[in-house]
Amino acid sequence: xxVTDDHILTLTCPDKPGIVHAVTGVFAAHHHNVxxxxxxxxxxxxxxxxxxxxxxxxxxxxxxxxTDHLLRRPRRQLxxxxxxxxxxxxxxxRPGGPRARARRPAxxxxxxxxPLHAGAVADAGARPYHQAYERGVKITGATAHFVTADLDEGxxxxxxxxxxxxxxxxxxxxxxGSNVESQVLAAAVRWYADRRVFLNGVKTVVFA
Length: 208
Prior knowledge:
Blueprint (H helix, E strand, L loop, with lengths): L2 E2 L2 E8 L4 H11 L3 E10 L4 E9 L3 E2 L7 H4 L16 E7 L2 E7 L4 E3 L3 E3 L11 H8 L3 E8 L9 E8 L6 H24 L3 E4 L2 E4 L2
Parallel strand pairs: 1-5, 2-6
Antiparallel strand pairs: 2-4, 3-4, 6-7, 8-10, 9-10, 10-11, 12-13
Helix pairs in contact: 3-4
């Protein structure tokens, strides 16, 4: 019976021809099985991003139980705070080949769900859902992003919106917003934990 053992390689480096061929050539030479490969070349930053999920020769991918059901619950229903993300190795291109560098990841959180007007303008001030109700908004949304020194200015990981029914009262609007926020937070944490999120300057590359 094969031993379950899988790995994830993440690579960020200056873009140039032949990177995919070089990486997959190493896997082939060592008889590793590539389970999934995603890549992106950004013409603006001239950076290359790659995520490879693979198993060494003679291994099989393990089954995993996720925590998505916990993260989807409204935050007020969680009895204790979630632990900070674990350390991980991030591979970056350097002259002479890629080098692994361990970094402590920045803390992340989901932006509080805010009702949106047409044109994606968020309500400001206190009691936002009462303001939204009075203005007759048609959508509500939430954003998950990296935390920085500037409030709500970190690189965005995920955004989602939901339709608002004209018959909803402020309490129902708040519940709708909380549901969207929980979904966005769950997706962002899951993708980050699975090493699918790459920083690209003030933006992100997300292999969802």
